[in-house]
Structure formats: C-alpha cells, structure tokens
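Can anyone check this?
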Amino acid sequence: AVVHTSDTVAAVLLGAPGSASASVTMLDGYSMAKKGQAGRALSLAFLSSMAGGLLGAVGLTLAIPVARPLVLSFGSPELFMLTVLGVSLAAVLSRGNVAKGLTAGLLGLLLGLAGTSPTTAEYRFNFGSLFLADGLSLVAVALGVFGLAEIASRVGQREKHGEVVQVGGGWLSGAREWLTHWTHVIRGALIGIWAGVLPGVGATAGTWLAYGQAMATAKDKKKFGKGDPRGIVGPESANNSVEAGDLIPTLLFGIPGGVPAAMLLGMLLTYGISPGPAIITEDLDLIYLIVWSFAIASVLGALLCFAGTRWLAGITKVPFAVLGPGLVVVMLLGAFQESGQLGDLWVMLALGVFGWLLKSTGFPRAPFLIGFVLAIPLERYYFLTVNLYDGFGWLLRPWVLVFLAVLVVPVALAAVRTVRARRQVDYDDEDRRPPAEDE
C-alpha cells in the first residue's frame, strides 16, 4: 500500500526515483527541491499518496456490491477465460515486445505446472524429487526473479545520482497548498483506480496518465517540469490508488494486474481461498479486512514518512553496492522461513539468474510471475469446463464471447495497423526510388 509513498524521498532529494512510477514525481519534485523547497514537495507528495490510498479503498468498497451479481453469475468457462485473459493482458500490455511478454507468461505457466496436478493427482516435472512434488514456493520464485535479479543488475551499475539537496522546511506551506489542489487529487485517484483495474497497466502508466491530465487541464503549462505542485499531486494520488484498483480484478475475478497483486493472489490460493465467486460468498469479511488494512496502511505510511524523512534521506545516500549484500541475506532468510526447506534457497538462486537474464534481454518479468500464479487455476477451471460441458458449446456463453473479443480484437487491430504501416513504407520507398535510365 505504501511503496509509492516512500519512493518519493529519493526522487525529490536525489533525482533518482525509488521506483519506476516515481520518475514522474521527480520532474517537478526534484526541481522544487533544488530551489530549497524539498519539504514543500515531500509534503504535497505524502498527503496526495495518503488521499489516493484512501480514495482507492473507498472505490474498492463501492465496487464489491456492484460487481457481486456479475461475479456470482460466472461458471467454470468464464473463470477459465478470465485466467487466460489475465496472462494475455499482462503480456500484451507490458512494455516492450509483445512476443517477449507472451513468451515470459508461457514460461511462467510452464514453471507453475511443476508438482502435483490439481485434477489427476499426478506428478509433473518433479524429476523424482519429493521437494518438487509440492510445486515451487511462490515466495522463492518472486524473490528470485525480482529481488535477486534486481540486486544483481543494480550492483553492477555505477551510482549516478544527482546533486543531494537538504530536506529543509516548507512542510506546512505544502500542506496548505495541497488543499487548494483537491480536484487534481480526486482526478488522479480516479485515473489510478482505472489503471489498476486494467490488468498489466500498473502504477507507472497510471502516474503518467495522471500527469498528462493535470497538464492538459491546466491553463498555464509552462511551469510543469520546473517545480509545479500540480505535477506532484496528480501522479502521487494516482500511484497509490492504482494498487487499490488492482485489488478489484484480483479479488473479484482472480486476475492479478501486477506483481504485488500476483503475490497476494498466490497467498490466498495457498491458504485455500479462491478469488472470485467463492470469496464473495464465503470470505466477504476477508475482502473488507484487506480493503481497510490498505486504507489504514495508507494513513500510517504517510505519517511515518512525515516523521522519518530526515532519517530516510540519509539512507538514500548509501551506495547500493553496500546495501545489496544485506538485502540478499534478508531475502534468503525470508525464502527459508516460508517453508523451512533448503531447496527453496537453490530455487531462489537459480531463478535469480534466470530473472537477471530476462531483464538483460528485455523480457518483462511481471507476466512470468502472473503466469506462474495462474497456472493451477487455469488447469483446474479448464478441467471442470471440459468435463461439465459437451464439446465446445461453452464457447458460445455470452461472457465467454465477451472475453474472447477482448483477446482477439486488440490482436486484430494491431495486425491491421502493422499491415497499413508496411504499405505506407512501401509507398514511401517507391516515391523515393530513383528514375530508370530510359526515363
């Protein structure tokens, strides 16, 4: 809930974003800090993040009664198509090459099939090992593909921080100024919720969308990028509400839109709690527990950032090569404590190398983890569908057709645009072709 609250500290003070989504805040926040107004910028950011988290929790609460009858009407065919949609959209909407995104998602599905089949009690890809018979630990996979891989890539890079600025004052002036921009807070939160509902969009795209709308609706656009408070308020409100919006498809439909939601979905499945119709009818209290835990964390996170910014600012000056070894130890302990098996450490190390290779070659890692989490639900719902329905008649169910259209239409439109672009290139080449000798 509060990752996007504290990642602003490094973006404002160092000009080095703590996460990809904080790069938007850095544009105006770092410019403001270089003018001696770092406290003002951080005050605007922390309050906006807190409000975005609270508005996101309210939006999620209101979405539950609205979506409840829809979710309860879903059967195994719709749930199967939703799992397919989750992997496909995460791959298609991820940055970079779509083919690489789909490949990463399919590799995650393949890895998730290791262990005991949920339908036939058969062992797959365990190579005679009792350790692999239970499947791979989600914690070990996530920490390896993202944690160790990120540390390996960061340690090999030289730190290129900008000029370190002092925190300074201006906290109260920033709070008063924040109240005057309440419309940007609400609009940023709504954009963030929408970006979170769409699987695979994520906080980075949501913050840039919020920044774009803030600039588009402003009468004076010259100050953006030079210390405009509207360039901080909108994106910071959006990045926290994105995570709340991401919980809507995760809890109600079983489609995680990003890595945090995939981790939460995996934990729910580990404890036998199935998102979708089952969680609404059997574990509705758990949904509200998650929602209001998110809201409370948003408030406490902002308060802790206000209280501890001066100490957090000191941590940002420590080279990552010094912090890296300590983080590796913490990750290894976390992977071991989750299951108590040394095999998870080897899995984590192996997938750390694999995750580093994915990042180095431009393959997105989020579709890989989402595919890993959705592998078992995908197989389970497909098994139920083909056994409960004769032939392919289930493909003609209304919601199944809707989900198929969501999958097919973007691919068809992309193919049409590609063909048109190639024809345009061919026409341009013919226009630039030199005349023949007989001409």
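Reply from J.R.: I decoded it. Residues 38-72 form the longest helix (35 residues).
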